């Protein structure tokens, strides 16, 4: 096979002189008479350019830096040429240029981008980013870092090296060696997807390594209070004032569907008084920024009246109830009210969705609007029919159709008696 003729040089484009008096430095690749040009991204004053050597003249720091860059670029071009000749046996100037341009593209590091993302979000914690969400970012980064170090022996990894094998390996590592739940693994996967999206935006990576990946999703169960359990929480005497106040706030959420954080943000201006005398809550949820529209049920209205008196439009209605205080109070309230499944504050929202609304015929679309969901698919999680609801519906059906069922049963009995006589 005849050997290709190959040459590379640098020159300045004098016809493109800029306002600062400098000209762009161009590179030229020639293979078998075919020529291609490319920009080096550098520029120099014409009087400081040595056309014969293809380098800058002078001993200034700027010219030295440019010359070092051009030398490195020339060596890179020659090395890539040799590599492609060995791999393909035949190479064109255009192909070599494309390969060099691909190598010159920025190739960010995964953990570097993760840490940059975390630092960008840090000032937003408690404002546009919830504290638990921010904690998940940090925890997910730590787990990815552990996988890189323990399984791959790396301190970080470039985006172009991320593929399906990397994700599958991370998934296996989190399950087998870390023994993490599917819910925790999902936190890592969601954050990794976010980082991949950042890499694609910054042109670090073109192919989505998640294309063929299907995560094993955790089976989520929405725990809620049944009608009988809710009655116990309503009627059981509680002497401790702190627990009694926490019960009132829990019940307010159970009869409005507000999450604890949104209940804490509630102000008198969010209470709308309608012309027909009814009241409703209108507040944008912190999590989704979607407005929740909730008609006030009598019990919620009574609890609200205990706290809203003398409050101005922008005053917070309810006293501060931190996650720690809410959790501690719920444990004790659950024991006092004999709630065996373990009471948590977020069960109030689930109780409103399932026991208060869906079990009483409220449509999924209406519930979605009251809960402030951005996607009705989220609301449909609550759509599982409870055993209690099945029992209630069938009892009502039996009562309505009792006479028909009774006549049918008697008819069957008569037919059976006739057969026995025959």
From TrEMBL:
Keywords: DNA recombination, DNA-binding. One of its GO terms (biological process) is DNA integration. InterPro entries: Arm-DNA-bind_5, DNA_brk_join_enz, Integrase-like_cat_sf, Integrase_catalytic, Integrase_recombinase_N, SAM-like_dom, Tyrosine_recombinase_XerCD. Residues 220-399 form the Tyr recombinase domain. GO terms for molecular function: DNA binding. Belongs to the 'phage' integrase family. This is Tyr recombinase domain-containing protein. It comes from Alloprevotella rava F0323.
């Amino acid at each position: 096979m005849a050997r290709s003729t190959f040459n590379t040089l640098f020159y300045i484009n004098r016809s493109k002189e800029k306002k600062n008096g400098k000209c762009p430095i161009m590179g030229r690749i020639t293979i078998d008479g075919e020529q291609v040009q490319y920009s080096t991204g550098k520029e120099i004053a014409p009087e400081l350019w040595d056309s014969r050597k293809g380098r800058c003249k002078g001993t200034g720091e700027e010219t030295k830096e440019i010359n070092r860059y051009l030398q490195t670029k020339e060596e890179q071009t020659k090395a890539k040429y040799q590599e492609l000749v060995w791999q393909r046996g035949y190479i064109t100037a255009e192909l070599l240029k494309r390969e060099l341009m691909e190598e010159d593209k920025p190739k960010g590091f995964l953990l570097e981008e993760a840490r940059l993302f975390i630092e960008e979000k840090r000032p937003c914690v408690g404002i546009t980013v919830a504290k638990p969400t921010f904690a998940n970012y940090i925890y997910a980064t730590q787990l990815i870092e552990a996988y890189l170090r323990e399984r791959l022996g790396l301190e970080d990894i470039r985006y172009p090296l991320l593929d399906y094998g990397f994700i599958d390996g991370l998934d296996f590592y989190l399950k087998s060696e870390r023994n993490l739940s599917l819910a925790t693994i999902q936190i890592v996967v969601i954050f990794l997807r976010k980082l991949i999206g950042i890499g694609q935006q910054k042109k670090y990576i073109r192919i989505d390594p998640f294309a063929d990946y299907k995560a094993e999703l955790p089976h989520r169960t929405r725990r809620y209070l049944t009608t009988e359990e809710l009655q116990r929480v309503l009627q059981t005497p509680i002497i401790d004032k702190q627990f009694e106040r926490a019960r009132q706030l829990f019940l307010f959420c159970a009869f409005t569907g507000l999450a604890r954080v949104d209940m804490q943000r509630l102000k008198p201006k969010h209470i709308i008084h309608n012309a027909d005398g009814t009241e409703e809550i209108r507040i944008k949820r912190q999590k989704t920024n979607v407005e929740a529209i909730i008609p006030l049920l009598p019990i919620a209205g009574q609890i609200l009246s205990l706290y809203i008196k003398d409050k101005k439009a922008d005053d917070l209605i309810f006293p501060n109830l931190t996650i720690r205080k809410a959790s501690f109070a719920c444990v004790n309230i659950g024991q006092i009210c004999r709630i065996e499944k373990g009471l948590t504050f977020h069960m109030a929202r689930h109780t409103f969705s399932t026991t208060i609304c869906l079990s009483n015929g409220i449509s999924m679309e209406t519930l979605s609007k009251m809960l402030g969901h951005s996607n009705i698919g989220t609301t449909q999680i609550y759509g599982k029919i409870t055993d209690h609801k099945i029992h209630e519906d069938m009892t009502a059906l039996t009562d309505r159709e009792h006479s028909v069922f009774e006549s049918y049963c008697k008819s069957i009995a008569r037919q059976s008696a006739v057969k026995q006589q025959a």
